[in-house]
Amino acid sequence: MDLSSIKSAYRRYARYYDAVFGPIFAGGRRLAMEMVNAEPAPRVLEVGVGTGLSLPDYREDARVVGIDVSPEMLQIAKQRAEEGQLKQVEALLEMDAECLAFADDSFDCVVAMYVASVVPNPDKLMREMQRVCVPGGDVLVINHFASSHPVVRRVERALRPLSRLVGFRPDMELDSLPELPGLNRVGVHKTNLFGYWKLVHYRNGEAPLAEPEQPLTPRAADQPG
After folding, report:
1. Angle at Cα 222 formed by Cα 220 and Cα 37, nearest 5°?
2. Claim: this prediction has a pTM higher than 0.90
3. Cα-based angle 74, 52, 94 (whole degrees, multiple of 5)
4. Secondary structure of residue 72 in the 3-state scheme
């Protein structure tokens, strides 16, 4: 994976992204929004905001900044925010997730939806997300991780040479997310019926009690994403 191949892939996807990926990724967005919206007036950074599918779901008193490397995707996100009069959206910026142009401790919550298997260097992504998150704040990573099923796993590995073309790594392991000092993993939650996509919940600068993996609610189980 490299930045030019990522931009090229999402330039192709931009027009069709909402129709194709919107329903598939709905479960992860929904669970992330439930966590983010649990606290009043959160300052939120959404890394890889894409076309802004999640933007209308943030609580009205939130202050949301979204970034993405794809200008084509961002243009759709800006149109969505403008047409929806989404006052919680402060800014939508073209920016590299591995080199965030924000000061330390800028956000209460940092969310990366379906980005970890896209960026060239997941370790840099995680370090930057931790840096801009306040102590005690939440870092949420929603992503597809390699299946434990042997047949599916072989298919994922076979598709790896196509990573540059499709714009993501199909065989990324959950354990490949780096363990960073002070960034504590407190829960891993399934976001769809078969657990193909997961939300990994971190707490920055604290060592809280671990969350048990939650069973799917009927609402989540009914959805394709």
Report:
1. 25
2. no
3. 30
4. helix
pLDDT at 24: 78
CA 90/CA 200 separation, integer angstroms = 26
Reported as half-sphere exposure (CB side, CA atoms, 13 A), residue 209 has a value of 2
Phi then psi for 120, rounded to 5 degrees? -65, -35
Coil vs helix vs strand at 135: strand
Element spanning 137, H or E: strand 133-144
| Residue in this structure with the two tokens 């998150």, named with its chain if needed | 133
Strand blocks (E) in 145-218: 183-190, 197-204
DSSP one-letter string for 5-51: HHHHHHHHHTTTHHHHHHHHTHHHHHHHHHHHTTSSS-EEEEET-TT
Q: How many CA atoms lie within 13 A of 15 on its CB side?
A: 2
**pLDDT tens-digit readout, 23-60:** 777 888 999 999 999 999 999 999 999 999 999 999 99
Burial string for 9-34 (b: 16+ CB within 10 Å, else e) reads bbeebbeebbeebeebbbbbbbbbbe
| Token couple for 66 | 């979204």
CB 73 within 8 A of CB 103: no
**For 98-131, what is each residue's pLDDT tens digit?**
999 999 999 999 999 988 888 888 899 999 999 9
